[in-house]
Amino acid sequence: MQLYNTLSAKERAALIEEAGKDRLTISFYKYAHIGNTSIFRNHLFITWNNLDVLGRIYVANEGINAQLSVPSENFLALKKHLDSISFLENVRLNVAVEQDNKSFLKLKVKVRHKIVADGLNDETFDVTNKGVHVGAEKFNELIEDPDTVLVDMRNHYESEIGHFKNAITPDVDTFRDSLDIIENDLADHKEDKKLVMYCTGGIRCEKASAYYKHKGFKNVFQLEGGIIEYTRQVKAKDLENKFLGKNFVFDHRRGERISEDIIANCHQCGKPCDTHVNCANEACHLLFIQCEECAESMNSCCSTECQDINSLPYEEQKTLRKGKTVSNKIFKKGRSEVLKFKK
Fold first, then answer.
1. Could you list the active site residues?
2. pLDDT (average), residues 61-73
3. Which helix (H) or strand (E) covers residue 212, if one does?
């Protein structure tokens, strides 16, 4: 039996267009102790492939992290399957603020060492011993408390386009970079301050909350369901929205508009802009912020060098890429020296 995706993104997009059915973009995670991850991975792939689920799912001994899309008509079948798995019964599903039928174009279920890379090798650290979960209403109260320290557990390119007001936004490229930085910066406040954290959907700050409890912080809180669930609750309960700008998401949409505030700048001309794009030169593919005017003048590229390469015939571009891998600078997300107005 085939346990991997066989269609290209282009072929899958065409099928979605042809089907003409609405899809839901959903994310969820759960920290749990999974024994045989390969068997669990294969079980998920077989079942979800039959439900026309697409997305990026990571399975590890510490749990599951899933970002996916499913035809609306198959949502209840997916929910029934999740409820049939003991540790996923009634798991919170974060439904995207903005829907896009093409948010994912392949089904990828991968076994990883961890569902959130943290760089930790401490066997005494229990990821399930988490901090206090709070909803949007309590979160709004906490972040107005002068004894609260609010920390954004996401990376710099995420918080650059949107964050909660007065939040500490570490200038980091990865989650693992932020753990020690935050602990060192707040070392004198382990007992007298409330440490409140948030992230996109909750998975990173849940691990961080357990880690900081392990490190001696006494009052640790996390925004349950992250920015996605916060936005839903704010709308449902008519609460004050304290999030500014866009929420960065890890699919083809790249962002969801939460407030009308534009707090970032085009990395090429400096004008207010919060639209992330990937450089059109496939040998580069750098993620950066680009306004419509620069996209037009630069042919959706990050530099004149990439612009020149992207203008070549496709076969010539393939020849230039042969035997080369995309530079690791893609993971620097906007820190490239070619970007004049990078953060």
1. 199
2. 94
3. helix 203-214
